[in-house]
Amino acid sequence: MPIDHKIVGAFGLLYALSSSTLVAATVDMRNPHLGRRAVGSEAKSLAERCAEQAPVDYDLELHIVALFVLLVASTAGVVIPVLFGTLKSTFWKRVLAFTKYFGTGVIISTGYVHLMSESLQTFANPCIGELPFRPTGPAIIMASSYGVFLIDFFGARLVRRTIRSRSISFIDPTTPPTLEESKPIPSPACAHGLQPKVVGGEESSKQAYFDVCLLESGIVFHSVMVGVTLGASAGDGWLALFIATCFHQFVEGLGLGSRIGVLSLSKLKLTSMCTAFALITSIGIGIGIGVHATWNENDRTSLLVIGTLDCISAGILLYAGLIQLLAHDFIYGEMRDAPTGKVVMALSAVALGSAIMSLIGKWA
To answer: What angle do CA 209, 79, 238 make, to 5 degrees?
Structure first.
């Protein structure tokens, strides 16, 4: 029994140390200035420390340069896979396929490593104070995922009804089918014995476009906040954050562009989707530059807004990455019956995308 008590005590001590370390790291990661100043200014109240801004030299010209560099990085990331999709060569089609699955890993890693982690750190910031509901961050992420699911579900129902009401005719099950009508239909049979003659590609095309729009909405929410933070902040760690953000937006652009590139879209829709991602981070940087003189990332309202938007984006990207991309491709899509070599290639691409995006998460 004494040994058991020692083991329990040791585990209790380890848990206490790890918990205190996690809290300290959370405060330092969210705003290192707050953590350092708290050590030497115990006489000040928490409210005073949270209201203060770190004394940094703001380089306006460097931030303007960053705006245009991020514009180039985001544009290159989202456009390159789209250009691959226009090429007819078998080699470039394989490159696009690899990029598509690479992008799936990027999206999933962004949801977990970047957005979920950042949102939980934000809500743990002591400048917010005690929340009425302690697990607010996870609750918002869950609500966001359910919200995207409902939009996806009812949107899919609307797309199917619209397409089928226009283009699908039904046959009487008592009438002998023709040779063309007797061919297997990939979708499940209707419950009342009426089966569609032809299931065209228009329905799946519209559904794929709808899914990518949902995916891009989550990325846009996230990217604008990345831009605002980069544009409003400065200090010793700013250059490393800027470089990491460039890689982040480029890789994220590859993930989104690989999904846009496989869609059958008009030039107007294609251009608008690429432009939205290419511009949004730079727009966020512009907003950050405009408000940098009064920006305080430890302000309670700012923390709540940033944390909530990060949680919403995390819920969207996790649902999109796990359900619309990973499960759709591997469990219900082409990978289910694909050759082993192709499956290994696709899984390797997913793992590589997740690994690279997770590594970038160390800095941005």
So the answer is: 110
Q: For residue 74, which amino acid is it?
A: S
CA 93 to chain centre: 25
The H or E element that residue 360 is part of is helix 340-360
Q: What one-character DSSP code corresponds to residue 193?
A: S
pTM of this prediction exceeds 0.90: no
Helix residue spans in 87-200 (DSSP H): 90-109, 117-123, 136-167
Spell out the alpha helix ranges (H) of 56-116: 60-86, 90-109
Close Cβ partners of 329 (under 8 Å, ≥ 6 residues apart): 101, 104, 335, 346
Contact (CB, 8 A) for 314 and 116: yes
Q: What are phi and psi of 318, to 5 degrees?
A: -65, -40
Using the structure block, give the residue that is written with the tokens 């514009």.
71
| Digit-coded pLDDT (tens) for 235-285 | 778 888 899 999 999 999 999 998 998 888 888 999 999 999 999 999 999
Average pLDDT over residues 109-113: 93
Give the type of residue at 36.
R
CA angle 209, 210, 212 (to 5 degrees): 65
Kindly write down the DSSP assignment for every residue of 28-45, as one continuous string. Answer: HHH-HHHHHHHHH-TTS-
> Any residues with CB less than 8 A from the CB of 188 and at least 6 apart, and which?
none
Q: Which of 113, 91, 95 is nearest to 355 (CA)?
A: 113
What radius of gyration do the chain's Cα atoms show? Answer: 25
- Which residue type does 299 have? D
Q: Rounded distance, CA 285 to CA 272, Å?
A: 20
Tokens of 144: 């966001």
What whole-number distance in Å separates Cα of residue 338 and Cα of residue 333? 9
**153-183: per-residue pLDDT in tens?**
998 888 888 877 776 554 445 555 555 444 4
Only one residue has tokens 């209707």, namely 190
Q: CB-based contacts of 130: which residues, under 8 Å, 6+ apart?
A: none
Q: What number of other Cβ atoms are within 10 A of residue 71's Cβ? A: 17
